[in-house]
## 1
Amino acid sequence: MTEITSLGLFELIKNIKEKKISSNEVAKSFVDRSEKSKKLNVYVTENFENCLKLSKDFDNKPNFDLKLPGIPIAVKDLFCTNEVRTTAGSNILNNFVPSYESTVTQNIWNEGGILLGKLNCDEFAMGSSNETSFFGNVQNPIAKDLVPGGSSGGSSSALAANLTPITIGTDTGGSIRQPASFTGTVGLKPTYGSCSRYGIVAFASSLDQAGPMSKDVKDSSILLEVISSFDKKDSTSIDFKRNNYSSELTRNIKGIKIGIPKEYRVDGMPEEIEKLWKKGIEYAKDCGAEIIDISLPHTSYALPTYYIVAPAEASSNLARYDGVKYGLRSSGQNLVDMYEKTRSEGFGEEVKRRIMIGTYVLSSGYYDAYYLKAQKVRQLIKQDFDQAYNKVDAILTPSTPSSAFKIGEKSNDPVSMYLNDIFTVPVNLAGLPGISIPAGTDKNNYPLGLQIIGKPFDEQTVLNIAYSMEEKINYKNNITDWWM
Amino acid sequence: MTIDLKTVKHISKLARISLEEKKAEKLADDMNSIFEFIEKLNELNTENVQPLTSIAETTLRFREDKITSDNIREKILKNSPERNDDFFVVPKVVE
């Protein structure tokens, strides 16, 4: 039999339900492999012992009607987990132990999932390479000293290295899709309002969404079904009829109209990305889709808009970290001095930079010029998509403008780092669902992804197109376990 | 437009983040390169555009004003950097 850790979620569920393997055997396999993979630095907090115990409990009293029967799952350390330390990759939350559980993780435990550990991420999810984490760089299992993408870099690395069968990330500007693309895995950002934000450490509340990251499309559909729910505890959670994503999954996408936006052909885009995109178009045609050229004229304004809206919301959300009720406190001569020292020592450079930008654009005299302006452009970007969706059912683009880069390569140049999210950010601004699927490799054999963007609440079409194309692409990661 | 050192220091006061002189200079450089890139938005005329404030077009829901969680006072206080009995302790505020 193939190694347990190389099985995806669907296969594991099948094997557990057919009693071919026990939950404890599965947990043990992932714990053992995780123990041998410390060099990747994916875990901030391990929950191994507890996971092994809970898997035994499951085996003693199994419930095979659950959607995730006794499946161990590691999650991004941005989800608050009751009584398990939650750091958001930050020094300021280094010792924070929540007394509540995020809705998304609670949904997973309710369906039989078991917490394996908390995964490294960029500090407060601000980054595209996992290099801003207080807990250090994460290695991409594809090759040594390669970034795993970010901000859900611990999640993408753990998944690609077979340390967890599936995982969840959060995506504010590409933080699920970009790391998925960098590691040859699948990452889905659902429609804004699909998955509850309750209990997720907030970055930019009008953009943040949780979503599944998996080895294949089917696995993402299974997990989406579990985590997508209406939740009264999130004021922007939306009560809409959710599909049974996994049972309604089909490769029949005949006649589906897929748009190709000409504005995504950006200056200086490497030829191999252009080639990948062309190949993707051919695959979509082979699957029976109709290809239609479309225009999203405000695409080039998405990143500048994002770098006003996201830092503004972040500066407001992160105002709560003041050293009073929880988290790090530095000593100061008076209350204000204590605040200033705590925040200076508790936050890393990128987080401080974004708080500063956000504070600036919201400050007296600049609000209209920056924040209000950005909200207006955001409207134009959303209208672009609304208009495109009069003609097409979904949109196909590359996921990222390049493959994974080396650790340290871009960390001194914030703008070049931000450009990584050029294809993913518009999707967050418009609140749409988007998935990245592995679609090929570059000249170094590093994975490259294609993104499928859907209409609001139409995750099913996005998944179906991805499922259909995935079969044609037939991508396989070639991971050598070099870190062992 | 450029962001000078004085502005950076003012913003850091507003954001309650203490800044060393050297770091403030680096931050001014970074912010200038980021704002240079943000200025692109000025190419667009947005006079008659309604700002998009929320992507979820829902009205806020009402709920009854009642406690739904158990008594978790002790768990919450456990996370406090400094406590005295059932209180959070901060540096002296009132003389």
## 2
Amino acid sequence: MALDRWIAIVVLLICLAYGYAAFFTMDDALPPIMRRAPIWPSSFPKVLVVGAILMTLIIILGLEKGPQKTEAADINLARLHEYKVGQALMLIGLMIAYALLLRPLGFLASTFLFLTVGSFILGERRFLMMAIVSILAAGFIWYLVDGVLGIFLRPLPGFLVGG
Amino acid sequence: MLEGFMIGLTTAFSLTNILMVIGGCLIGTFIGMLPGLGPMSIIAIMIPVAITIGDPSAALILLAGVYYGAVFGGSTSSILINAPGVASTVATSFDGYPLTRQGKAGKALTVAAISSFAGGTIGAVLLMIFAPALASVALLFHSAEYFALMVVGLSAIAAFAGTGQVSKALLMTLLGLMLATVGEGVLFNAPRFTMGIMDLQSGIGFITLAMAMFALPEAIYLVLDPNRSKTAEGGEQGEIKELRITREEAKSIAPVIGRQSIQGFLIGVLPGAGATIASFLGYAVERNIAPKEEQEQFGKGAIKGVAAPESANNAASTGSFVPLLTLGIPGSGTTAILLGALIALNVSPGPRLMVDEPQIFWAVIISMYLGNLVLLILNLPLIPYIAKVLAVPRNYLIPFILFFTLMGAYIGQNNATELLLLVGLGVTATIFRFADYPLAPLLIGFILGPLLENNFSRAMQLYEGVSFIWERPMTLALLVIALLLVLLPSYRARRARDRAEGVADGD
């Protein structure tokens, strides 16, 4: 089965959970006075979820014929192994690591690491160049955001500034 | 109108605002050239900056400048290296790149700049005429009509989203609306669908969602397929010289620019159509009506083939401000992000904007003239230098694109959980994109969600039920139009899609 139908099935399951919440559990806590009102917090979600379930069913059952894909420009899933999937997955992992390390390591160190490791994953091996670019970029962006824009970014690891 | 114009002049011609326009245009051009960062991502990155400025007029002027700059930057990379940074400039590369290969890159850039300038300026004049008229009609609207109007907008966006399958686009719109219901709504003061997670209490940040929907999938695509990020690394980047064009050439493109500016503007006003469709349609129309011998030149380096899409896409970008500023309804992903920025700045666009805060409305229009002028006289001579950015190797470029994406979501919220949410949503969006689900409708649905629900609720309260649908003829008519839009598949969008695939979404 094609990927778009698998996605539709997953979306359908999410919609069922959302719909269950909207139809059965959400209004339990509603105060009696609100029950008189023509509109409840769950009214709009109910309309949405019915529509969404209908659409997923149309896609799963293949009721609307899609056009044949011929473009070579887009990613062709049948030849996924020819693409740099490993690099992409590693970079996604790197982004998660960045999110987790940003607070503990501070902005400067984590950004430096992110940019260096990122170029490394993509195949860059000129280490000195990588280090210089990353240090300059991290420092400059920190100055720009913190100094010029006045948005606080903690530059150093938490244990150094006691927070 | 004259009074408003004067207010706009005094607002826009302050030193800060002029600097905003210039800065915005330069930043936009610079980033717009890079593969992987379309206008939507650039604007989303700039929003925290704009919010820090605080003054809504200045912020909007900055963002509008960034928008024009990005569209212009996109055409530059289309012409120079046949790598359109944005979908709306794909048509420019048909003739722009052949010109570069003939050693006429400078000429192509000049034609592009002049056409963009003319398209943008004519668009701004039309906006000035159209918007107040539309706003005065819109002042008569009630919440029921607003609700219906938004439904029309969303249906049009779904119908034109360009995957050929309306059910997918509609599903994405509904998912966007559903995501918007997460968190504590304005109307009910009760958290909904937060699953007890505190971080979801205030809902999902729209910048996070914008980054996740556009910047991140495009970056992942760039990693997956190295051929997408054609930078000028060792490649044949045309020497840029001879920026002048002859009198005959100017004469031959003048009518093209005139026609396409008007046509582009009208297409831009329609929700869901936007600059991409305008540029392809403009190119096609001009090729069809050109004399026989010129027709054969199209695709081989005809300057008309550069002038047509460039004037059309700029006029359309300007046109897309009409529904945004007068109705508060965005017609494209980019204007949806601008709407989000406006809401974040405590400005609610809509017909009241012109009455309550005319200085914002008019300053934006004046800044459009200014922005176009800046692009023509400042950016054009600088292009040979700005184009150096195209030589940045991919190994450095991609980590920076990813980093800016993360920063855009982080500095708005200062919350590391937001980054995890961004990565999660971004990976999901990439999978959606693999299967041809359009992503713009989701974001637009998300941004319009609260407005749609509020108007729906107000109409329900007023009429004690759904009877407003048939008791108000205007509402009924609009809803019928929405239904028709969904049911009638659009062949135009299909045609445009075949060529527009493979570049950053958005116009």
## 3
Amino acid sequence: MKKIGKPVFFIVFVLILALAYTSMFGVYGENGDFDVTYIKGINDIRWGIDINGGVEAVFAPADGIDADETQMEDVKGILDSRLVGQNITDYEVYPDYEHDRITIRFPWKSDEKDYDPDAAIAELASTSELTFKGGTESSGEVLLTGKDVKRAYATYQQTNNSSSSMEYVVGLEFNEEGKEKFKTATSNYVGQQISIWMDDELLSAPNVNKAIEGGSAVITGNFTSKSATALANKINAGALPFKLIVESYGTISPSLGSNALQAMGIAAIIALALICAFMLIMYRLPGFIAFIALIGQLSISIMAVSGYFTIFPSFTMTIPGIAGLILSIGMGVDANIITAERIKDELWTGKTLDGCIRNGTKGSFSAIFDGNITVIIVAVILILVFGPANILSSLFGVSTTGLIYAFGYTLLVGVISNFIMGVAASRLMLRSASGYKFLRNKKLYGGAKS
Amino acid sequence: MMRQKFHIDFVKNSKIFFCISLGIMLVCLILNLVLLPTIVDIQFTGGTIIKYNFGGEPSHAEIEKTVTETLKGIDTLKNEKVDFSYSENLAANADDSTKHIISLQFTGNKAVSIEHKQAITDALQKAYPDNSFAEESSTAVDASKGANFFLKCIIAVILAAVLMIFYVAIRFRKIGGLSAGVMAVVALIHDLIIVYFTFAIFRMPLNDNFIAVVLMILGYSLNDTIVIYDRVRENRRKSGPKTTTAELVNSSLNQCLTRTICTSITTIIAIGSVLVVSLIYGISSIISFALPMMIGLISGSYSSLCIAAPLWVIWKNHQAKKKAEKKKNGTSDKTKKDKKTKKEDKKDLTKKEEDTSSET
């Protein structure tokens, strides 16, 4: 075993503290008169309807269209996907098949400066049909539609005129039918322009140089990372079968309120304190290290919810979500408990301390690994089935379910952060700390006095 | 030889454990069917949402009291559960007297008739003459997550279960992983049934919380079982072929017991803090998350120790018996490996009924 230097303990410790501080309080600065967020903290999390209230809107088909039940179900599915595409996982959609109405509720942070509920509702209600047309007029011949697209994604590429600068674009992959149509269209329009539209908005109008057979295309046009992602999500969610009008909309008061948020904060602190005490009594030094790792693990979970970096949107955090996060505090020390128990077992056989730590960490890895892999299987299935990927959609129709998707996501993050903190960081700290003379008493590891 | 603090014979006592589990389930089932029918949330059943607009700022708790008391006087709606939510109308035509909106959500398919709606309006107007209560709209809501959603959840759980059995079968092939995986899933089903009954017995509606608890317990219980199998796998490697499956599993369970208990304690501390705080603050939606979660966690630890592992031993012994019978009937293709397993199987058989408490 390579010896781990004594300072490693403090390096890992300081890194975890820094992570904990930034993930909770964020990093903000000022640029002239503007407040700039560099790293998002707890205050930048989008809270759910239960904590912060939200917006309620009732949609109806435009022009008095009489929608049938399948169409209404399609509309519901597409609205689900659009909301989850915006990382709004705490929402409710209630279809009323009798009167062709859809009621939708989603959280909205009232003091959010760059959030406009009118625009958000208008965007949800838009048909969002992607079309490729011949020429640059909106009346041009429709060559392809969003139905021919298999997948859209935000990406970036070099700009045409200079090789050094990069720009954000939306990449499109066509399905089999789309590939054929795109090949025919591009061969018909060689030397002319094809225009790409989202409803009535012209996105770009590239020149066709030659027929394209690959079955993929990109949409350019002054995108930022955010707007490219938004457009890709919109295309993936699909077009509504008809235009929706907003029949009424209003704000809804929080059902639980800030009181509940405070209560969860108290519960989290109590849980942390009790677990810290328990781990110290049961496992002493490894217990203390487990607690530091636990703080790091919790920080990673908060990072994953808030987005941490400003380019990632925040997930919606509801009161049950917070309760789940607190629960993960309890489960998070499991890897440390397994390892510490192993080290105790080894100490009982009377080997040297270093040998015990080495055998203990080695012997416990397979249990931690297999246990966590099976949890990862559960998490990935939930993300794939209930998230935007919707792998069972051919059986059940598109039905994205925000809450379960969010649950799968936090579960996955929990397991990954457990590997980083509970396994890797904990072991580094333990081996480094055991290099100090005053920490070499076997009693500190749960063994008999050395 | 390992340090071992406990000497509980899980395998020998397995019949007692099975009886306890089945007994609890049976009692719950009877209670559930006779006295305490399951409540299902509006998201799954559909229902009616009635909205009233009003002005001023009357106390929300008082309004809810007025409505609940009115409903008590109506026979068909007496036992209906109503959810209240408040909103503010932002539309341009709303003035001060119609700005505030209260929504009543009725679950279930029972129609709320025009007379009943009028009765509620009358009661509100009588109680608050200055707030101009008026019915604004009444919407029939279809289940936003209907039978299809439940079916999808079940398919997802089955898909996860199949993949997990597959994974366990590969990773634990040295100890007969396929049967181990199946038994782990049996323990999971045990836990899910317990969670379901917790919701039913405590009169908590099946809603998003139910799905969240079920999924969480799925991950937790499985993790617990795998850690035990890991120890069995390791002990099988260390011990000679003379050790019977029962001995092997018993010593593995006892070695893992401290870990299982400690992890349960830290997890229960965490969810217990949430439960106690929400009881003090009276946050009912969290109580209906934390309580079943806590019971599910206890069931998850219990089922890993007392259901999955002993069941697996019974299965293994059953298999060994069948194999031995086949051998007796005279198949004589004996490779060296076969001989070894036969010896092992016979040991299994002869030792099966003996007291198998493991040595220290």
